[in-house]
Write a structure and sequence with these properties.
13 strands; alpha/beta; single chain; eleven-stranded mixed sheet; about 30% helix; Spore Coat Polysaccharide Biosynthesis Protein SpsA, Chain A; two-stranded antiparallel ribbon; about 300 residues
Length: about 300
Amino acid sequence: MEKTLVVMAAGMGSRFGGLKQIEPVGPNGEFIIDYSVYDAKRAGFTKVVFVIKKEIEEIFKETIGKRVENKIKVAYAFQEIEDIPSKKYLAEKRTKPWGTVQAVLCTKDYVDGDFAVINADDFYGYDTFVKASKFLDEEKDDHVYASITFPYIKTASLFGSVKRAVCFVHDGIISELVESKITTKDGYALAEPLSGEEVFSISLEQEVSMNVFAFKHTFYQYLEEAFREYFSHDDEYILANEALLPDVIEKNIKNENIILRNITTNSSWFGVTYKEDLEGLKKSIEELIEKGEYPNNLWE
C-alpha cells in the first residue's frame, strides 16, 4: 500500500489576501507546497493527494501539478460546498467549505493505506516528514495516531495573533487539544479557546498542533461519523461553524477510541498568516538553501 501525504489546499487565505498556495517563495518560483512534497518524498512517502476546489483546478495543475507529477504519484480530491451528507439546501447559504474534516474525508477514495495530513500553506521542514513517516512505518496498532507538534514560539507571527490547537501532553500522549486564538506576550502567551471557554496562559514552549497528523486508514470511519454528526446540529450552528480535525480527534481520545502520540519535531516552522510574513519566509528559505538543506532549484 502507498504511504500517502494529504495536502489540504482548498482554502483561499482571506487574511493573506489571495491564494497563498501559489505564492512563489523559492528562488525559482517554488511554492511552499513544493518544499513539502520534496521533503515528504525523500522521507519515504510515495503518493500525494492534493485537496483543492474545482475553481482552482486549472491553475493548480498548471503550476504545482506540472512540477511534481513526474516526481511522485499524484491524485486530486475536490472539496466542494455541495458535497455534504444531508441538509443539501445549506450549500446555497455557504461561501466556503465545511472545514478540515471534510477536506480529509474527501480523500478517502484516493488513499489505500496509512497517511499524513498537512496544510498547504505551512512550511514544516524535513524532520517533520521524517518523524511522520517513521511513526507510520513502526506503529502497528490501527487506532494509534500521532500529532507532529511544534513549540508555540516557533509558530508565532510577529504581526498578530494566530490560531493553533494547544496540546496537553502526558507521558508522550496527547490528552486534549484546544483550538485557540493565541497572542504572544512578554515571556508567555495567552490562549483564547475558540469554544468560548476561559482564556488561559501557556509557556512559549507549549506544544501546539499545526495540522500535521499521521493517521492509520481507520481514521476515515471517525471522520464519517463526525461529519454526519456535524450536520445533525441546527442550521444556525452549522452555518456559523466548521467541522475541525482537532475536535474529532479530541472526542475520540476522550471516548478512548484512539490514542494520539505527541512527536515534537526539531524543524523550524514558517508560514504566511499575514501578508507581512511573506518576506520573512522567503529569507528563511534562502538561508536553508545556503546551508545546503535544499537545492537552489528544487525540481532540477
